[in-house]
Amino acid sequence: MSGPHAPTGALPADREVLVDGRPLRVFDGHLPNVGEYVQALGRAPFTRTEVAREDTADYRHWATEMKIDALVRQPIFEVTRRAVLGFSSPGHGYRPYRAYTNVASYGDMLFTHTDCLPEQRDLTALWYLCDRWDVEWGGETVFYDANDELMCAVRPRPGRLVVFDGAIKHAGRAPNRICYTPRYTFAIKFERVAVG
Predict the structure, then answer these.
(1) 74: in domain
(2) How many Cβ atoms from other residues are within 10 Å of residue 33's Cβ?
(3) Which of 20, 140, 169, 182 is such that its CA lies 20 to 30 A from the CA of 114?
(4) pTM above 0.85, yes or no
């Protein structure tokens, strides 16, 4: 929930879309030190281990993992936590269980997928980590409804955060040919948990 009815401390969204009744929210301007993350990622040990779906396991893409205990000490996590707080409901909250960065370049193939089963109601928080991004470079994350119709596209911008229900089918798109900048997306997966 965003706006005047958001829980105390929740980050207000700049844009909100519902895809088949499932929320997707975009947050801008909350990561002033995005350049520090970009510099660190330039030295990170990426491995070609990530797969979108079981049937695309032969087409792996580059990722580097971050341990949850290290994640929660990062300033980026506090902003993410406040954005996710707006999705909480009475009796339920969210706990991070995985954090990793993907990198894509021109020519990479990224497939459609979901991050959880519909009944799980897990969330994905996706940060775009770049110093700058030209609209002609592409690299959008596209979101589909149950009929595989495109419902929303979120383009990379420095320090942009999109938080969405993990059951929404989506795909990252690789940068266009004219882009020589890596497309870094930092994903934090949250599971829905009961809180008392």
Answers:
(1) yes
(2) 10
(3) 182
(4) yes
Residue 59 token pair: 């087409």
CATH number of the domain at 55, please. Answer: 2.60.120.620
Q: Are 55 and 36 in contact (CB under 8 A)?
A: no
Ramachandran angles phi, psi of 31, nearest 5°: -135, 80
In a domain, residue 7? The reply is no
Structural domain harbouring 165: 19-194
Helix (H) or strand (E) holding 98: strand 92-104
**Tokens 């020589």 appear where?**
180
The closest of 165, 157, 163 to 184, measured between CA atoms, is 157
Task: Yes or no: say if 160 and 26 are a contact pair by the CB < 8 Å rule.
Answer: yes
Per-residue pLDDT tens digits for 5-53:
455 689 999 999 999 999 999 999 999 999 999 999 999 999 999 999 9
Contact of 193 with 94, CB cutoff 8 Å? yes
